[in-house]
Amino acid sequence: MTTRILTGITTTGTPHLGNYAGAIRPAIVASRAADADSFYFLADYHALIKCDDPLRIQRSRLEIAATWLACGLDPDKVTFYRQSDIPEIPELTWLLTCVTAKGLLNRAHAYKASVDKNVAAGEDPDAGVTMGLYSYPVLMAADILMFNAHRVPVGRDQIQHVEMARDIAQRFNHLFGAGKEFFALPEALIEETVATLPGLDGRKMSKSYDNTIPLFGTSKQLKDAVNRIVTDSRQPGEPKDPDNAHLFTLYQAFATPEQAAVFRADLLDGLAWGEAKQRLFQLLEAELGEAREHYIALISRPDDIEDILLTGAAKARKIATPFLGELREAVGLRSLSAQAGAGKVKKKADKRARFVSFREEDGSFRFRFLAADGTQLLLSKAFMDPKAAGQMTQRLQAEADTLELQPGDAQFTVGLKGEVIAQSPSFDTMEEQQQAMSTLRKALAELVAE
Ligand code: TRP
């Protein structure tokens, strides 16, 4: 059985070396496994939550798409698309929103962190919190459940979101599944072996620490960044401690075990930091040089990337569109005409004769008796109040057997116990009058029988 792997990349920045080692490279390797069915997408709706700069969103979508393709993602083998090209995702988000407990979202880390910060600053707890931030986990659940992903490779900070997606999926299955499990329950996949890369200063490489090494900058930018890696003050010839040098950690993340062993021995042997940096630079150039060329070529042809993404979206929607149809059906958003039940009710209503009351301009009340096809069978006399008119329609049915039908010149009258209570329309011939009388009796009998 194939395992469906799905992950999203929020499009707010430019990928750096940490993203590459921690997410992009392992995801591409995983996508090549024979039994893998991978869905990788640009989470650009999520980007809107964090960023209100349209140019940055636009640029980031292009750069991230180009990065994944340049690093070897094969769009024929995986499904590679933009979240915002799949209208079924926001639609599913709403269906899920309606079964998601508010209390669950109150406990989301990202939201809680904002609240804690506000409280500490003496502000309103929800200051600056948008509904986008608050509902972020529901949108993410829709991303995952839309394609019934089994495994979701994410960073540790996202584990809670995947667990919420499970909760929401279970709740939906329970409420609407009627024995059928609409959603598979997803699991977060944390790559224990993937190193969290240290940045220039030794803390986790992250844009928010401003300590990143660009992935596809120029060769010179790469060299400059490597030269800014912080080291201790040991002089050339002095033994270095590889296990306490993040420069070594960075090297190790891209080297073969043999290369790393040689580097380690040389550091212990007193390799100068300047020389060590030169070697790291060369290693990174070897790993990234070719992909960088590819990246530059891709970035200069945005139309080609657009085509690839739209093709990916069409592939994704082949799954999303019919599945969402099923889900709409499950919650009751159904076509009216396709339902046997509703069809029957409609037919019955159509075929039925009926009384219709109305008010005259002089304030009195009358009713008409209409055949199923809407032709008028009777017009009642005037009543002073609507209740009396209503009672008479009841009597017409209850005493249908004793109605006194009296033919006239052009029309017939209907009496009850000697009192004329209604008259028919006018007819040209006596035959038509007779015909209309029997139609009337039949219509009343049918109505009574129901
Ligand atoms: N929230 C994720 C992040 O910031 C990105 C993301 C959006 C995602 N939707 C997803 C990841 C679905 C996995 C599955 O990293």
| Global structural class | alpha/beta
Provide a count of the helices: 16
CATH superfamily of the largest domain: HUPs
- CATH architecture heading of the largest domain: 3-Layer(aba) Sandwich
> Which cofactor or ligand species appear?
tryptophan
Work out the helicity level.
40-55%
Quick one: overall form?
Answer: rod-shaped
Q: Please report the total strand number as a whole number.
A: 11
Number of domains: 3
Topology-level CATH name of the largest domain: Rossmann fold
How would you state the average pLDDT, rounded? Answer: 93
What series of H and E elements makes up the topology? EHEHHEHHHHEHEHHHHHHEEEHEEEH
The CATH class of the largest domain turns out to be Alpha Beta
Low-pLDDT windows of residues: 341-348
Q: End-to-end distance, in Å?
A: 57 Å
The value of Rg in angstroms is: 38 Å
State the major sheet.
Answer: 6 strands, antiparallel
Binding site for L-tryptophan: 143
Motif ('KMSKS' region): 204-208
Subcellular location: Cytoplasm
Enzyme class: ligase
